[in-house]
Design a protein that fits this description.
single chain; mainly beta; Rieske Iron-sulfur Protein; six-stranded antiparallel beta sheet; three-stranded antiparallel beta sheet; 9 strands; binds FE2/S2 (inorganic) cluster
């Protein structure tokens, strides 16, 4: 078991992404139990800790695939995800990492690009302005 966080670090009915070594884990706190699964959705790489927690399942924030928090099994189409054992001792939360899947699915959460804008004003749908070169001019004086 590896120390993951303190109890108050994860609000009730929410998830948080934590790094344990080089593995990103989504840790969830529900009224009845704590759960840990790999942090990255196997469908398109969304951060599962940002998903909606409901009935011992998490709904991926991007395309609504559902995963069982206890087993990691896919409750909708697609492949499941690795689940890890969680233990709470006092104020401390510990996770026992399951072995990484052989297909290399356990990517660091920084690998996902699906929610990251490709350019700063991506929300407007406009590409960035071309540089005028102004910033590259040498300073005078
Ligand atoms: S990225 Fe999770 S369902 Fe598509």
């Amino acid at each position: 078991m590896t120390f993951a966080c303190r109890v108050h670090d994860v609000p009730l009915d929410e998830g948080r992404t934590i790094m344990l070594g080089d593995r990103a884990i989504a840790l969830f706190r529900t009224p009845g139990a704590w759960y840990a699964i790999d942090a990255v959705c196997p469908h398109r790489g969304a951060p599962l800790a940002d998903g909606i927690v409901t009935d011992r399942a998490v709904i991926c924030p991007l395309h609504d695939h559902r995963y069982d928090l206890a087993t990691g099994a896919a409750l909708t189409a697609g492949e499941g995800i690795t689940a890890h054992a969680v233990e709470v001792r006092g104020d401390h939360v510990y996770v026992a990492l399951a072995p990484a899947p052989a297909n290399g699915r356990a990517r660091p959460v920084s690998d996902h690009r699906t929610r990251r804008p490709r350019w700063p004003n991506a929300a407007s749908g406009c590409p960035p302005r071309r540089s005028t070169g102004w910033s590259r001019r040498p300073r005078s004086g």
